[in-house]
Amino acid sequence: MGTLYLVATPIGNLEDITQRARRILGEVALIAAEDQRQTKKLLSALGLRTPLTSYHDHNKEAMTDRLMAELAEKDIALVSDAGSPGLNDPGYELVRAAAAAGFPVVPVPGPSAPIAALTASGLPADAFLYLGYLPRRKAARRALLETIAGEPYTLIFLEAPHRLLESLADLLDILGDRPAAVARELTKVHEEIFRGPITQAIQRFLDEAPRGEITLVVGGADPSAGEWSEDRLRAELQRRLAAGEPSAAIAKDLAQVSGWSRRRVYTFLLDIQS
Fold it and tell me: Where are the chain's structural domains?
């Protein structure tokens, strides 16, 4: 019976490969890689010639069955392009199948961009919520942010450089001007970790378009502020409506101070106006 090893690989700096990871990658009979081209470069740098096969989103259903058959006779390592396999990459399906069939599943921990960014952010790391890539579409992205606006945990997201400013604008609009860190090109030559309020992050990357892989770390909702009661929220909505303030401005302002999501504030607004 073989063992499935989940091997973390460098996210940029080759020196971050662990001795254990290098040994396992050289000892297993087969490496299942998200992108064989990327893993070939790593193996070449390590002086290894372990056989490779592809395991990615487009073939994972068929390959899970094949790899299960291989595990009956040999050890296999699962790797992603960079970092810990299974985080935003295919992998959990194979892990679940292997564990259910009784094969040993052994993590070989190492580099992880979300954890590296969190620990360097200067934000609380005792409790955090990791949500992977933010949705590409604005409506879906804002809907997701609405659902977590009141969470007290430090928030971690991944984002593509060409969508960074749009996402920061949505974060500011829905979550308010919270402390944040924008980490890009972690462990690489041009590594940068910007720390400051979201408004300052927007200004920083307006001046210079970001490049490279980006991890966003954002402070959680302030638990000391507390959530307004529904009666208090409705009273403030009525006061501002009577003063002639625009609905969009009311919802934006109150979502930032009341502890209620912008979507819920809008719901109350519509109810009062009906």
Answer: 4-111, 114-218, 230-273
Six token digits for residue 134: 């933010």
Same fold, 4-111 and 114-218: no
Task: Specify the CATH number of the domain 114-218.
Answer: 3.30.950.10
Q: How many CB atoms lie within 10 A of CB 61?
A: 10
What are 157-213's pLDDT values in tens digits? 999 999 999 999 999 988 888 999 999 999 999 999 999 999 999 999 998 878 888
CATH of the structural domain 4-111, one choice from 3.40.50.2300, 3.40.1010.10, 1.10.10.60, 3.20.20.300: 3.40.1010.10
3-state secondary structure 127-149: CEEEEEECCCCHHHHHHHHHHHC
Q: Are strands 179-184 and 214-218 parallel, antiparallel or unpaired?
A: antiparallel
The CA distance from 141 to 18, in Å, is 36
CA distances from 52 to 20, 25, 48, 180 (A): 19, 10, 11, 39
Residue 90 DSSP one-character state: S
CA-closest candidate to residue 76, choices 20, 109, 33, 40: 33
| Prediction pTM value | 0.82
User: 266 with 251: CB under 8 angstroms?
Assistant: yes
Which helix (H) or strand (E) covers residue 76, if one does?
Answer: strand 76-79
